[in-house]
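It is worth pausing here to work through a concrete case rather than discussing structure prediction in the abstract. The textbook approach is simple: state the sequence, then state the predicted structure, then interpret. We follow exactly that order.
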Amino acid sequence: ADILQKELKTNLGTHYIPNPFVGQYQFHTEANIEQTVKMLDFKPRFEMEEGIKAYIPEIIRLYETEVLAK
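Step two, the predicted structure:
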């Protein structure tokens, strides 16, 4: 949320809602790719912040076509 707000130049705060999928949803994930890097000699093309920044135009497009168009 913080990265998105920084890239979108907003300060809207974060609003958390109760998850209706309690018991069916993994609440905490951590993308530890150490084994992937080691075993497959994999090197990510983007850091997370760079990937989000690259995705911003698509987020804006979807917002304009899916939310504002209604």
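Step three, interpretation. Helices lie at 2-8, 34-40, 48-68. The chain has three helices and no strands.
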